[in-house]
Amino acid sequence: MTANVPQPATPNSVSAGPASDVKTFLTAILLTFAVGELTLLGYALLGVFGGIIGLVGGIFGIVWWRSIHDKKVFPRDLPAKSVIILAVATALITVVAFLLVA
Fold this sequence. Notes:
Blueprint: H1 18-46, H2 48-68, H3 80-101
Helix pairs in contact: 1-2, 1-3
């Protein structure tokens, strides 16, 4: 008869800690929101064609973000500086879109 002995828990090799998880979560929210805002901004300026251009620009932005972070959109150790710059850029895009739409 074979006994199933429970294995000791191994540390999570994906997460680098709670702060890293929060930065990754904020990055996911900000990238998604920024692409939506770019699409809205393009649509507000040029109609459907502008919306398509905004969407392509947002996708290009995510590809660029990936290229500067070791070929990963959400790297394990995301620098806080990158998240802050992304937050500021997203806020600026949101203010411009709000001023054009409102």
